Amino acid sequence: MKKKVLMATGITLAAVMVTVGVMGNTVFADQAEVAKEQIVYEQGVVTDVASDSQYQMLDDTSFVLSESSVKEENLSDGSIVVVKDDNGESKALEVTGLEENADGDGYIVTGKEADNIFDVLKSVSVSGTAYVNPSDIVTMDGVSIASVQSDNVRSRGLLGMFSFGKKGTAELTKLTLNINRDIEGIGSINGDIVLAPELEYDIAFNTSGIQKLRLVADNKLTFHNLSVKCAKAGEIPLVRLPYTFANGMFTAYLNLDLVYEADGSAYVTYYVSGECGVDYDGTNTRFVCNYTPGEFTYGVDATMKTGVKMEIGLVAYGTFTIMDMNVNTGFAGDLECNSNGANTGDIYYYLDGDYGYNSVLAQYGICGKVIVYDKNNSVFRYGF
What we know:
Blueprint: E1 5-8, E2 18-19, E3 36-41, E4 56-59, E5 62-65, H1 67-72, E6 80-84, E7 90-100, E8 107-113, E9 121-130, E10 138-139, E11 143-146, E12 163-164, E13 170-171, E14 175-182, E15 188-195, E16 199-206, E17 209-230, E18 233-245, E19 250-262, E20 264-280, E21 285-289, E22 292-316, E23 320-337, E24 343-355, E25 368-373, E26 381-383
Parallel strand pairs: 2-13
Antiparallel strand pairs: 1-3, 3-9, 4-5, 5-8, 6-7, 7-8, 9-16, 10-18, 11-14, 12-13, 14-15, 15-17, 16-17, 17-20, 18-19, 19-22, 20-21, 20-22, 22-23, 23-24, 24-25, 24-26
């Protein structure tokens, strides 16, 4: 097929898909988020090779296709083909070679990643909410997923972190990460971080430009009994949450790193909640970040900083970075206990970020840096 328009409206999520409720509300299968998709490919782009009975991906840039498909689609060097891997993620390849399959019927097609997204697409309009498949969650060294008990839990283990609606649809209400990490033999970090993420998207562009781009994570981060004992600063990767949507065309990700500093020892319990992301309306770009701090308990005898660095990215066809952003949030301070046993110094909430610098949109000026809160204007600052 040389030109294809994909329309998908009123898609109801299957019971096996993890859905995330807004503001903690349960999302049932018959109430699930409706995704809207309209994708128009450039003339000549081949999009339906996966329907070939002999189709098989050999590696990231080569696959097997039947002789009839090769001839029907008139494949040759320079043809653009959209393939799909075993994870359901799509990739756009430019054909660089065709040879008969010595191990069986058909042809082995080799290719390279397409040079430009507009060699593949004429226009795109997709919107909805992206969901996390629990089996795709990746935790890093020294980090484990702790079981969370909640209402309506039907099983233990990983699925024990999900509550279930009346038709069996799972809702990722919260994901608890337990941190037990030595820091190069000179310190340690212990405690829990709880997050409840969802990713809202609204994307529209064509060969004339970007009409809109909204990529916003709505979540709540809770730091529970986080203890830092060391004499240095650093970052620890915690978890990677991947999202795939629009028939595998887009892959988004949320990477969470713990940022720490403690010239001494510190422990904290606090939470922040709200939205963070980027919203471009075709004219103006807005850095969306309305995180607000909540309950805060601490014990510090140190120069300290505890928080997270959140990286959010949106990639088309596994190749083209459409948007990237970083958000930094947490608490920092310089406190010590004087001879009378009282704390002296101050502590404050910080929030800053940047977006777009590593994306294809940077060339259009859709990028920037924002300091929302620092020591000078923090909504949460205490001096002693």
